Amino acid sequence: MFKFLLQRLASVLPTLFFVSVLIFGLQQLLPGDPAIALAGEDRDPNVVAHLRAKFHLDEPLPVRYWYWASGVLKGDLGESVRIQKPVTELILEKLPVTIQLAAMAMLIALSIGITAGVISAVKKDTAWDYAANVFALWGLSTPNFWLGILLILLFAVNLGWLPASGYVSPFEDLKGNLAAMIMPAFVLGNAIAAVLMRHTRSAMLQVLSSDYVRTARAKGLNERVVVLKHALRNALIPIITLGALEFGTLLSGAVLTEQVFSIPGFGKLIVDAVFNRDYSVVQGVVLFTATVYITLNLLADLAYFLVNPRMRT
Amino acid sequence: MRKSVLFGLLVVAAGTACAQTTLRIGLAEDPDVLDPTMARTFVGRIVFAGLCDKLFDLDEKLNVVAQLATSYEWSADNKALTVRLRQGVSFHDGERFDAAAAKFNLERHKTMAGSNRRGELAVVSSVDALDASTIRINLSTPFAPLLSVLTDRSGMMVSPKAAQAAGEKFGARPVCSGPFKFVERIAQDRIVLERDPNYWNKGAIHFDRVVYTPIVDATVRLANLRSGQLDFIERLAPSDVPQLRNDSRIRVARIVEIGYQGITINVGKSEIAQKHALGRDPRVREAFELALDREAIVKVAMDGEAQVGNQWVAPNNAYYAKNVPIPKRDVARARALLREAGISNPSVLLMTPTTSDAQRIAQVVQAMVKEAGFDVKIQSTEFATSLNLADKGQYEAYVLAWSGRADPDGNLHTFHSCKGPLNNAGYCKAEVDELIDKSRATLDPSQRLKLFEQIAANVAKDRPIIYLYHRNWLWAHTPKLTGLRTVPDGMVRVQGLKMN
C-alpha cells in the first residue's frame, strides 16, 4: 500500500509542474492584448505602456513564466490588476463560498442520484426504473441557467420564499445563508444527480448479477442487507471516482450557476478574470483548482482502499 | 417602573430601526479599482457618485454646476482656470479639503504611474494654490472641455494623507469626500458605503448606507428588484421594459445616453483599408449608410429603447449639428452609388463583439444592406480580442459603442483627430484636425457649435464611423424611491434620493 501511495505522491509534483506550464502557455494563446483589455474604454497609450511594463508583457515567454513560477513557489500568486487585491486573498475569500456550494450540491446529488440509481437497478424494468430514467434524462438535458432562472421566478419573485440571488456568510446569518444557497445547490446537484444515477444503476446491475450476491441471497440474507451492504458497497467504487471528479468540476465549473445566482465564488471569479484578461487571477485560480483536482483524485484512490478490502493486498 | 424602562428601550430601538435605512443598488458589472486616478470602468463611476465628490458636477441638461468648487473664472487668454473651493469640507478621515488638497489631487491624476486621467488632463501644465480655498489650473493651451473633464473622475478629490499612506493600494480602501464613506468591498459580491455624518451637504442625504451589488444577468437583476431585495437597478434590459409597463411595483426611468452606437470603418488604419471597397471608396460607404434604416435597427436591436442619430452626440444635444440631418433609407440611391463606383457586389467583413445587442445590430445591418447589394459576413469576436484587432487595424468594419463624455470633445477628438488614441478608423484629415483643435480652444458655445457643424459635414461625408443610435439608460426602481435625477451621463446621484 505504501509503495502505491508513494508512487501516486511522486507523480503529483511533475503533474503540477506540467499543469503550471500548460496554464501559463494556454493563457498566452488567448487572443487580445491584456494591456489593452485592462486599460479600459479609453485605452490611453500611456496606461497601456505602463501595464505592459508592470506585467513584463514585452519580455520573452520563459522569462514571464519564471517571474510567475518563482512567485508561486514563494506562495505569491500575484495581484488582480482590476481590483488591486492579492490573488491568494481572492481565493481565500471565494473558496469557502464555492466549497459550501459544491458540498451542498454534492450532498443533494448523492442523496438523489444514488437513491434513484439503486431503486432503478433493484426495480429494473418497472415503473420505478422508467421514472428514474426519465428523471436522469431531465436532469441531464436541463440547462442550468434556465432552471436557475425558473426557480428564481417561482421561489423568489412569485412565492417570495427565497432570496433571488446573492450570498450571505453562514457566520453572519445561517438561515439567510441556507436560503440563498439552496436554489443554486439544487440546480448544480440536479445535473450531477442524473449522472450519478446512471452510473449507480449500471454498477448496481453488474454487481447484483455477480456470484457473491447470488450466494448471499442463497444464504437467505434479507434483500435489504444484500442490496445495501453487499452490492452497493462494491458498486460505490466507480461512484466515488465519479463523485470526486464531479466535485472537482464543481469547484471550478459552477460558472453559469454562480453567474445566474450572483454567488461570488470561484467560477464567477475566473470568468470575469478571463474576460478582463486579469492574468494573475486566471493563472492563480486555475493552478489552485488543478491542485485541488489532483488532490481529490489522490484522495479518491485512497478511498478505494477503505471501501474495497481486496485492493489492500 | 420596569415596564416603562422596557417601553422606553423599545421606543429607542424602534426609532433606531426606522432611521437605519439602506439603499440597495443593483449594478450590471463588478466595478474595477475604486481609485479615481486609476479607475477605468463606467460602472465604477456609479459607485464613485456616492463615494467621491468632484470639483464640478453635471445637471440634467449637461450644464456644468458646482460641487466641491463654488465658482470658476477663465483668464483672458483662456489658458488658466481659477477655481474657488467650498469651505468647511472634510474628507472621510477628517482631513480638511482645501487648495493644497485639490492641487495634490490634480497632480496625482497627472503624474501617478498608470494614471487613467493623464490623457484627460494632458493640457494641464501646473496647478497653483493661490490661497486656502482658491486654485489656479494653468494650461499649455486653451482647452474648453476642461470643466466637463472635472465633472468626472479627474475632478474627484481624495484625502491626500490617505492616498500618500496607501500609495498604489489606495483603491482597496478609498478615502474621499462624498456623501458616503467606504466600509467594505467583497469582490463580485458587494460594495458597502455608510453615511458620512460630516458631509457638507448632509441635508440632501436620506440613507444611512448604500450597498452596491453587481448582478451581471439583467433578468436576475430585475428578479431581485421584483422580489424586494434591491431598491434600484441600472441597465434594465430593453426587452424587459414591456412587461413592466403594467407593474405598479416597479417604476422605469430612462435617459438618452451621452455615448453612441456606431459602425467604425477601417478607412486608413492599415493596408486592409485599401483592400476592401468600403474602406477604399467613400461612395461605397455612402451606399452602405443609405441602405440602413436606423429606426428599424433601434426597434430590433434595442426594442425601441434608443434615439436614432448620425453624429457623436444625440439630436437632443445642444451641440448636435443640425446642418447634417439623419439620412433617410434610400436603397435605389445606394444601388446607383455602387454602380457609379463600379462595384456590383461588395463584400464586407463586419466584426462584432459577442454581446447580444451588437450581434443583433450586425444581423439587422446584414439583412438591410443586402438589399442594396452588399454581402456582409459577420465575424463574432470576443470583446477584448475585437479591441485588439481594431487597435491593430485588422478589420474592415466594427460594431462598437462608446459610453460617451459630457463634452462633445470626448466623443470626437479621440476618434477623429489624426493622432486620436481611439482613432481605429485611421481617419486623418488636416481640415478636420484643425477644426477639432479650434473647437477645443474656443470657450464660446455658439462658436463651438459652428465648428462642430463644419466637422460634422466632413465626418458625415467621409464616414469613418457610421453612427446609428444613442441608447436609453434604463433604470428600474421601487416606486417608494423618489428624488431620482436623470442626468445623461448615467450616474446614480444619491443626493436627494429618499425612500417614502
Could you explain the architecture of this structure?
The complex is a heterodimer of chains A (313) and B (500). By secondary structure, chain A is mainly α. Helices cover 77% and strands 1% of the residues of chain A. Chain A contains 13 helices and two strands. Chain A has helices at 2-29, 34-38, 45-54, 61-73, 87-122, 127-141, 144-158, 174-208, 211-218, 223-253, 255-260, 266-275, 279-307, and strands spanning 79-80, 85-86. Chain A has a two-stranded antiparallel sheet. The longest helix of chain A is centred in the middle third of the chain and has 36 residues, at 87-122. Chain A is globular, with a radius of gyration of 23 Å. The mean pLDDT of chain A is 84. Chain B is an alpha+beta fold. In chain B, 33% of the residues lie in helices and 22% in strands. Chain B contains 17 helices and 20 strands. In chain B, α15 (409-416) runs antiparallel to α16. Chain B is globular. Chain B starts with a helix and ends with a strand. The model of chain B is unreliable at 1-20 (pLDDT under 50). At the A-B interface, α2, α3, α5, α7 and α12 of A face α6 and α14 of B.
What would you report as the Rg of chain B, rounded to the nearest angstrom? 25 Å
Numbering strands along the chain, what is their spatial order in the largest sheet of chain A? 1-2
Question: How far apart are the termini of chain A?
Answer: 8 Å
Mean pLDDT of chain A: 84
Low-pLDDT runs of 5+ residues of chain A are: none
For the biggest sheet of chain A, the summary is: 2 strands, antiparallel
Question: Based on DSSP secondary structure assignment, what is the total number of beta strands of chain A?
Answer: 2
- Could you tell me the radius of gyration of chain A in angstroms? 23 Å
How much of the residues of chain B is beta strand, in percent?
15-25%
Which key phrases capture this entry?
heterodimer; A: 313 residues; mainly alpha; two-stranded antiparallel ribbon; globular; B: 500 residues; alpha+beta; twelve-stranded mixed β-sheet; four-stranded antiparallel β-sheet; 20 strands; disordered N terminus
